[in-house]
């Protein structure tokens, strides 16, 4: 298990130089244009067929997207998501062998505000994307990341049970579709002309403050991913889409899997990297590109001139050790060049993991992480890494300051003067936790709006292990978007209420949430 | 300005804990380190009073610290355990003979009984002889497989109820990464377990009391306690593939020190899909040791060595197991494939 060139797996063998045959292995006639894997040479035509078939097979095999369903494609502008866009276009075209039967739309999240691009740079990138999107004829939406500041708290609150579709449901949906098909579906897709939205400068500043308040790039990237996901889900909801298509490819998923493990997201791995992700309940994300490697996509895009737009991100032009995500990416890429089966081996691991979080449909929203919406994995289990870390921290801190972990809610009296000053006007309402006024659900928002800031410890208790790590890297929580904070406050007051009435509750289970 | 210890707030801090980055004085660090191991032992219910526990001792830092801490905690908290040292002599000149000297010194320092089992008496082969036949490639497979069984055999000779090994948090995290890179889902699932369930006859349950201790803290502990340990890499293991995982983990740790615990947390919370094929545990039809195949790996490797076909146990040759069992000769083609590669 440990020495040079050891071959405990045949696939781990370093790349061997094979003499590349000049003919396509599929049709054995045309001369080869690409080498996908060692020895697999394809001509242009066969490569195209192979690529298209793989995309369709992924969708066909999983049967998650129903005919006639509205599907929102998340397109960042990168090669992978642009390739996905072109595949959908291809599948819907009249000439397609077996037409795809869903109704696509495109969304692009403009993250320029978080990355620190100037307004001109952002406009330029969007204009480029606009020409690409217009050419598809699909409706498209540009959403600036700044919009995350105005999201409703329902994004992180509602955990509507994902509608379980039995196998028969797909068939009946097909039948329904065939019915409609003859009448209405022949009308062209309604062209929704979307212009590039204006962004208020104050919003961009607020977003910048949020990003700057996160001290490490690892946590920044993690937070940005979460916010982007929230925004995508919200856009899908408000525009009436029920599925979200993400362009994650095999290589990226392998990196993501390893990153997730390093970030402590083991419990959420399957959802983070699987084909479908139902953590948001009514909006299901799917990853149809997960069988393609970055290399295949690059070949395809190059040969068939699929346009893509390069937009620098948070970790562009940084050193390898800038963040865990970036380090993992360069680690996997490097290992892949020496051991060509690295990516597929890691990727296969992801397929062997549990897809549904133990009780994804039944889980109460309070058992879900406030940020990533996965089931909480922070139950105080004996002899776990989580417990061991808490013990270590406790043991190496001043015993007088006490075990900070057991006092999750810091009593109001102990607050620093600055904080209590701000909270003073609402003191009678919110002090020591919802006696009367704060108790009722209608009132909490009123209370909240008067500048009540939840303590770090409060917010922390609603987060999963990994998101707690992210929050730990933030200098203050006040820059978090309002919807997150107000939902944290709502949960906080709910749990306080529950505590107060706990002795009268007969059942430990259900809670009228 | 001297930094004060963040725990007692009186003495000067002498170190920054790699695990939590708190500054601690020597006494508080010792206390914290020992207490953490104690908490791990308690929380995972590793031992019962009256049990005899074998400490797998190589003479390296991990096992030396383990032996020290186990003896100390056994006395401090009255575990009621009878401790013993158990070493394996792989027969590597210039490496194991030196480290075993350390173990022998430890034995006297800690006043614990010591048992050394050697590959030579168990298998009739020393690692030196194996390397001579196999070459520097793949020899770790032999060493690792043989050691696992040797520890069990030694434990049975000593009549211990449990073995504890010096695996630390870094080792566990590294193994999680390795198993992902190798796609080994069965091992991935069990590699984070703190102790093995009693798997059957001939197998002694094992546990890792240092599972949550950072390698760096173990070194710090050994350094400040001035423990006598042996630190040399094995002369036969240039550590390539595992080396990738190790370097990666060290790089990750430099970005976010908690990453080691985070990876273990991930490993502990992985859920494997139902219906994924897992190897079924059986017993070796030759020696009776646990095995998922007809023959256990150790027997296959040994057979290969004795027949002069060292590659028999490297890679997967399950189809040949029946032939080996019935003592049939292999075909010329098969033999050719399994002979060691000439360099």
Summarize the structure.
By secondary structure, chain A is an alpha/beta fold. Chain A has helices spanning 44-62, 79-92, 112-115, 119-136, 154-157, 167-183, 201-213, 217-239, 250-262, 269-273, 294-303, 324-338, 342-351, 385-395, 417-423, 427-430, 444-449, 456-460, 465-472, 482-501; strands at residues 34-35, 41-42, 70-74, 103-110, 140-144, 243-245, 276-280, 283-286. Chain A has a six-stranded mixed β-sheet, sandwiched between helices. Chain A has a two-stranded antiparallel ribbon with strand order 1-2.
Annotation keywords:
heterodimer, A: 513 residues, 6-stranded mixed β-sheet, two-stranded antiparallel ribbon, globular, B: 343 residues, alpha/beta, Rossmann fold, 14 helices, 9 strands
Describe the structure in your own words.
The complex is a heterodimer of chains A (513) and B (343). Chain A folds into two domains: 63-367, HUPs (Rossmann fold), CATH 3.40.50; 396-460 and 473-503, no CATH class. With 513 residues, chain A is an alpha/beta fold. In chain A, the strands form two sheets. Chain A has a six-stranded mixed β-sheet, with helices on both faces. Chain A has a two-stranded antiparallel sheet with strand order 1-2. Chain A has 20 helices and eight strands. Chain B has 14 helices and nine strands. Chains A and B meet through helix 9, helix 12, helix 13, helix 14 and helix 19 of A and helix 1, helix 6, helix 7, helix 10 and helix 11 of B. Chain B: It is found in: Cytoplasm.
């Amino acid at each position: 298990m440990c020495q040079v060139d050891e071959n405990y797996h045949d696939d781990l063998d370093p790349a061997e130089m094979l003499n590349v045959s000049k003919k396509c292995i599929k049709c054995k006639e045309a001369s080869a244009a690409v080498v996908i894997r060692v020895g697999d040479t394809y001509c242009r035509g066969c490569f195209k067929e192979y690529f298209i078939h793989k995309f369709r097979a992924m969708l066909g095999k999983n049967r998650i997207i129903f005919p006639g369903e509205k599907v929102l494609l998340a397109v960042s502008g990168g090669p992978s998501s642009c390739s996905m866009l072109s595949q959908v276009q291809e599948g819907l075209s009249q000439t397609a062998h077996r037409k795809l039967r869903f109704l696509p739309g495109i969304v692009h999240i403009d993250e320029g505000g978080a990355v620190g691009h100037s307004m001109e740079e952002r406009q330029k990138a969007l204009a480029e994307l606009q020409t690409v999107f217009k050419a598809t004829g699909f409706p498209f939406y540009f959403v600036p990341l700044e919009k995350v500041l105005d999201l409703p708290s329902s994004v992180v609150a509602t955990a509507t049970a994902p509608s379980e579709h039995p196998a028969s449901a797909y068939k009946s949906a097909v039948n329904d579709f065939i019915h409609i098909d003859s009448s209405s579906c022949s009308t062209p897709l309604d062209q929704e002309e979307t212009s590039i939205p204006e962004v208020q400068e104050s919003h961009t500043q607020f977003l910048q403050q949020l990003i700057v308040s996160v001290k490490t790039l690892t946590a920044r990237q993690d937070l940005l991913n979460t916010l982007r996901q929230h925004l995508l889900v919200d856009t899908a909801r408000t525009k009436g889409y029920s599925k979200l298509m993400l362009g994650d490819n095999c290589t990226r998923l392998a990196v993501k899997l390893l990153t997730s493990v390093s970030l402590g997201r083991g419990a959420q791995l399957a959802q983070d990297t699987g084909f479908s992700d139902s953590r948001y309940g009514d909006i299901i994300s799917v990853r149809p590109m997960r069988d393609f490697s970055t290399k295949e996509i690059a070949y395809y895009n190059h040969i068939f001139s699929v346009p893509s737009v390069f937009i620098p991100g948070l970790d562009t032009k940084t050193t390898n050790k800038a963040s865990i995500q970036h380090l993992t990416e360069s680690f996997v890429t490097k290992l892949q060049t020496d051991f060509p089966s690295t990516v597929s081996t890691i990727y296969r691991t992801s397929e062997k993991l549990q897809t549904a979080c133990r009780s994804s449909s039944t889980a109460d929203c309070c058992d879900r992480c406030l940020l990533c919406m996965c089931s909480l994995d922070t139950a105080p289990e004996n002899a776990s890494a989580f417990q061991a870390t808490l013990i270590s921290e406790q043991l190496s801190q001043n015993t007088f300051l006490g075990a900070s972990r057991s006092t999750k809610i810091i009593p109001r009296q102990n607050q620093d003067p600055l904080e209590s000053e701000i909270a003073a006007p609402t003191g009678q309402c919110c002090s020591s936790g919802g006696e009367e006024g704060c108790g009722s659900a209608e009132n909490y928002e009123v209370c909240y709006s008067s500048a009540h800031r939840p303590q770090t410890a409060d917010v922390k208790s609603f987060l999963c292990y990994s998101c707690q790590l992210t929050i730990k890297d933030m200098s203050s929580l006040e820059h978090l978007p309002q919807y997150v904070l107000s939902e944290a406050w709502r949960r906080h007051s709910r749990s306080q209420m529950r505590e107060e009435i706990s002795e009268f509750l007969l059942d430990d289970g259900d809670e009228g949430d | 300005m001297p930094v004060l210890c963040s725990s007692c707030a009186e003495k000067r801090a002498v170190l920054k804990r790699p695990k939590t980055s708190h500054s601690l004085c020597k006494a508080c660090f010792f206390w914290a380190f020992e207490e953490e191991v104690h908490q791990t032992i308690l929380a995972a219910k590793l031992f019962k009073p009256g049990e005899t526990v074998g400490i797998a001792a190589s003479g390296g830092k991990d096992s030396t610290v383990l032996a020290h801490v186990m003896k100390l905690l056994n006395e401090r908290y009255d575990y009621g355990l009878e401790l013993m040292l158990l070493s394996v002599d792989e027969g590597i000149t210039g490496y194991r003979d030196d480290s075993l000297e350390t173990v022998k010194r430890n034995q006297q320092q800690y006043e614990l009984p010591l048992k050394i089992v050697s590959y030579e008496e168990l298998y009739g082969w020393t690692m030196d002889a194996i390397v001579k036949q196999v070459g520097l490639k793949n020899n770790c497979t032999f060493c690792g497989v043989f050691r696992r069984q040797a520890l069990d055999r030694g434990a049975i000779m000593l009549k211990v109820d449990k073995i504890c090994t010096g695996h630390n948090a870094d080792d566990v995290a590294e193994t999680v990464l390795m198993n992902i890179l190798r796609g080994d889902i069965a091992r991935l699932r069990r590699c984070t377990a703190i102790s093995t369930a009693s798997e059957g006859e001939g197998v002694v349950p094992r546990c890792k009391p240092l599972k949550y201790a950072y390698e760096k803290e173990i070194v710090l502990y050994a350094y400040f306690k001035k423990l006598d340990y042996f630190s040399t890499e094995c002369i036969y293991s240039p550590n390539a593939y595992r080396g990738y995982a190790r370097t990666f983990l060290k790089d990750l740790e430099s970005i976010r020190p908690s990453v080691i615990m985070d990876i273990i947390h991930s490993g502990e919370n992985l859920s494997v899909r139902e219906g994924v094929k897992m190897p079924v545990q059986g017993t070796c039809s030759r020696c009776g040791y646990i095995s998922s195949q007809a023959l256990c790996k150790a027997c296959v490797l040994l057979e290969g060595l004795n027949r002069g076909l060292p590659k028999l146990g490297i890679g997967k040759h399950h189809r040949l197991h029946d032939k080996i069992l019935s003592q049939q000769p292999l075909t010329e083609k098969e033999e050719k494939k399994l002979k060691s590669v000439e360099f």
